[in-house]
Amino acid sequence: MKLMVVDDETATRNGILKYVHWTELGIEQIKAAGSALEALRISSVWEPDIVISDIRMPDMDGVTLCRKLKEMLPACCLIFISGYADKENLIAAISLSAVSFVEKPFSIEELEAAIQKAVDHCFASHETAYLKSSLRCNMPVIEEYVVKGLVREEITDELLDNCRFLEFPLDQKTCFQVLLFEAREAIKVRAEFLGTILPYFEERQERTLKYFRSERELVMILFSPEKGCFIKESIQNTIMEVIERLNREGIPLFCAAGSVVRGYEQIAASFGKAEQMKEELFFTGYGSASFYRKNGGERTTSGQLMKLSEIEEAIRRYDVPGICKWEERLYRTIRRGSVCSVSEIRKVYFQLLYAVECAALKLLHQEVVRTGDEIWCTACAARTLEELHSCFIEAAEKKLAPSHEREGLSDTVFQVICQIKKDYSREDLDITTLADSVYLTPTYLSNLFKKETGFTIGQYITLVRIKAAKELLGDKSLKLYQVAEQCGYSDQNYFAKIFKRQEGINPSDFRKTRM
């Protein structure tokens, strides 16, 4: 603790410095000034916690000095000493929140009592400032705790105390509304995201409490003294403005607005309605909003699953254009009206994704088919119908060969082609291995393959390997022997010979043309 004595009388100044028991009072550093101007100069650098100042001094009176000190050091504690305890000086001391006013002549005990009071006041102020600073740092944590408790209807005395700290209204007149915002992708900079949203509501003189439920979701409690502020179209317009703004900034957003309720105990009910309205996101997609309506606006479902026979038949034929055509009809049917619930729609797409996975396994596009649980997780991860639609089309196009590759080919030859494309890096890939995989003799398979493709199996394996080698040669980090090994050739020189025979140029020169 630092203390400064300001008095133009040398005897008084020195007496205070000499006789006060500073260590016992907790004063660690002491300075003295013989004038107000000297005191200001010292304070600008040293910043005392406590100032003992005479009131009547020649260059500047103590009251003016202390006003300037308070402007410079608002937390500084003041003790006035004076031989003139007039009303004017007392009023000035009060206005500056002086800790004590000590009249001259005074005893050391009187002054020490005033100093002790100032020390206690300083410690209390420092503790309060620290607590406030800590609370400011923990404000988001407190806010999250309060919002979670209110929306879950877990109201405790501790929660109510935190509500009061946040100046959150606990009366039965204030109206509340829960808003659920969800972004299509993780919100990377939360402060910027909030900095975009909150001003729209602040302009309407509405307050908010909020917390991020996940990387993509924000739960917000909106409150205002008048219910009308919520039910006006302007609140809907405000939310749509927020959504459009963030869309333009590359953050597609959806908002579900719950019911307007009166009294903090009903916030959980508003949250429940917002969760119901959030189901609309599945159908409408991002860049939209859904507002609770008491008598209407909810989707009805028939509980009847759509017929999938046309799509499943197209999957069995590996007819990707046909798959896309029939699935597009299914997608548009669901968009026009809810023929079944969201959970049932997910089951439909799970069934279709599983059919694609099984067809892909048959074609040997992958070594192990995904489990049903993994496919169901994929279906559930899609937050919108559009995402489910895109997920299915992508899987069909990626896992099932385009129809033009299959045109005119039997199932057997097509399966052999798929296995060659999958296993071309195996050095032991040959006619015998392929014939065993389709339960035919090598001779019969060789003749069938040549008849349908115009290539021998050996020629086709070479074509696939050289095509892969051309791609790998574009990677400068790979040595030529590594490229050869990844394409099924253990002998680099033999690989180079085959490559030049196919392409008319050796691998090293071909690589130079790609750089």
UniProtKB/TrEMBL annotation:
> Which superkingdom does the taxonomy of this entry point to?
Bacteria
Which UniProt keyword terms apply here? DNA-binding, Phosphoprotein, Transcription, Transcription regulation
Annotated signal sequence is: none
What CDD domains is this protein classified in?
Answer: REC_YesN-like
Query: Which residues are in the Response regulatory domain?
Result: 2-119
The chain residues annotated with the modification 4-aspartylphosphate are 54
PROSITE patterns referenced in this protein's UniProt entry, alphabetically: HTH_ARAC_FAMILY_1, HTH_ARAC_FAMILY_2, RESPONSE_REGULATORY
Q: Which residues form the HTH araC/xylS-type domain?
A: 414-513
Q: Cross-referenced InterPro entries, in alphabetical order?
A: CheY-like_superfamily, Homeodomain-like_sf, HTH_AraC, HTH_AraC-typ_CS, Sig_transdc_resp-reg_receiver, Tscrpt_reg_AraC-type_HTH
Q: What is this protein called?
A: Stage 0 sporulation protein A homolog
Q: Which organism is it from?
A: Hungatella hominis
